[in-house]
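In full, the data:

***
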Amino acid sequence: MKKICFTLLAAGLLACSGDDGGTPPNPNLEVVVGTWELSELRISPAQDIDQDGNTTTNVLDELACVEGTLTVRSDNTWSFGGTDVVITTITGGLFKFFCAEEARNAGGNWDLQGNTLRLADGSGNITLFAIDATAVTLTNSIGEVLPGLQAEVYAKP
């Protein structure tokens, strides 16, 4: 009986240490906080948005009025301000692209889960952004074909 008690006591002492084993801070925390500019709105298939004879998969290449700024703050709040693109179907795989008449503003709270930035708005809608710390980009992969978007990408200026 003494052997068992001593073994349990020793195991208990080894389990306790000065290091509480807490979770280390997410290395992406320093990357995500700051101001991000919309750098790409990907579409599929490629389109000649401004009718110049060149097709693109990035709406921003041909429609300069589309813009957006995402601000991620250290107090776990975020805000967005910008002008959205409006896409309507014409016919035969063609689409009309134009800028929204009014700017859009949004905000809410954010958190990190590994390499994913989660933005929650006031209605509880969550948007996920993959963090690329090397390229310093945030990518929301939507995965839709026109008239939907493939992805939106933000970069630090």
Notes: The chain has one domain: 26-155.
